Amino acid sequence: MLRVTYIGHATLLIEIGGKRFLTDPNFDEALGKFLPRVSAPGIALEKLPKLDAILLTHAHADHLSFKSLSALPSDVPIYTPPAIARWLAKQGYRHAVGIAPGEAADVSGVTIRTAAATHRGNRYGLDRWRSATNMYLMETNKTSCFFAGDTALTAGSTRLVDHHLEAHGRTLDLALLPIGHAPWWKPGFRKGHLTGADALTLFERLRAKYFIPYHWGTFNHVTSTAFDAIDRLRATLQNHPLHPAVKILEPGSSFVLPTAAP
Known about the structure:
With about 260 residues, this protein is α/β, with parallel strands linked by helices. It is built from 5 helices and 15 strands. The two termini are about 15 Å apart.
């Protein structure tokens, strides 16, 4: 079974192969002092089920919350880019495990594969050595799920799926892709992020059965509200041929992969 529950922003609970994975855990009430959370987490942190691994894509504050990591069990491995793992270990998170692009890890029968995202993920302006950002592919011999973290739309965005699924005659079951919105005066946004239209294009290129958008409805941002991106995606989907395969989850709601393709 493959089940995904949207908790908020880039935090999703993924249940695949009988194991549970939590992505980019952030249960904070705000980002800094000026960007408040506008919707409660779909699952309260203390109500989470037993986890088998945490998948951390990069060091940005909306994806890496020290407060949330500290509240989670310390016996659950945190898979993250090697530079981030070393940094976390120095902060006392000894269960951080570095996994670089091209590497894989086995979590009790679920294979976790990585590729580099197109996104500069360093926490601060000068710590470029922490800029690596991972994308993850989770797969068993029956099901598969791709989590893009933060990334731009590039020719290499499908590399994980192309190499490990398509090349072996398999189809990606579920694509988890971020959506964002930036005003016209911020043209650099798409160099490291997906708009809703970009995410739909990537969904088509991945040839996945289903697409769940995330990175919306949680925090207001400096250049957009929490709902700008999803409002635009919903408008686009009204006359889009892939509309039935796009599953928009409100915080706390889940999607279970059907036994038959759409």
